[in-house]
Design a protein that fits this description.
With about 190 residues, this protein is α+β, with helices and mostly antiparallel strands. It is built from seven helices and six strands, in the order ααββββαββαααα. It has a six-stranded antiparallel beta sheet.
Length: about 190
């Protein structure tokens, strides 16, 4: 991947004086070697859809949401709607929120678990975006077995699932940020 080294960071005092716009996010995605599937805009908020495969978890459909006055949010429908066992499922999400402090799990209106990472505008740059996306993928990889009951009927990972090679590019992100995600990818 071209430019696979660390992304040059702008000092925080200079970042605070600038705004982040859609061209910045698109440039960052290109620097990270990622190509969005789609882009949308509404009421000054821009979103991009990405599809990433981790080392273990496949076909993660992430959405980046940029509100230039607030934050850049990396957002993933983590699993289908939770059908039953709400108390146990909510306990699991709360435990994960405690175990993984840089991402947050929540429940969407349609009962789907969500995994998200938020980048305040002041600190948003290509490096922080790459780290946030890598963290979401790494957490998804790490929690594959614990999530199996939400992802597959009967809670069994299909026999060929882990044998399928990745089809979209999160592995270079995981490699790039492995030193900063050691607790997740080690």
């Amino acid at each position: 991947m071209a430019g696979a080294g660390p992304v040059r960071r702008t000092p925080a005092r200079l970042r605070r004086m600038t705004t982040v716009g859609p061209p910045d996010v698109e440039r960052w995605l290109a620097e990270l070697g990622l190509t969005p599937l789609a882009r949308g805009e509404r009421d000054g908020v821009t979103s991009w859809d990405l599809r990433l495969d981790g080392r273990r978890r496949r076909d993660l459909r992430l959405t980046l949401i940029l509100d230039p006055s607030v934050a850049l949010i990396c957002w993933l429908h983590y699993a289908p709607p939770i059908g039953d066992g709400f108390r146990r499922s909510y306990r699991r999400l709360l435990r994960w929120n405690d175990e993984f402090p840089f991402v947050k799990f929540s429940i969407a209106e349609d009962e789907r678990p969500i995994l998200a990472a938020e980048l305040p505008i002041e600190s948003a740059d290509a490096d922080e975006l790459g780290l946030a996306l890598a963290r979401i993928v790494a957490v998804s990889d790490r929690l594959l077995e614990e999530s199996a009951d939400w992802l597959w009927i009967g809670g069994r990972i299909p026999a060929d699932y882990l044998d399928r090679g990745p089809t979209s590019g999160a592995t270079p992100l995981l490699d790039r940020y492995a030193d900063r995600l050691a607790e997740l990818v080690g």
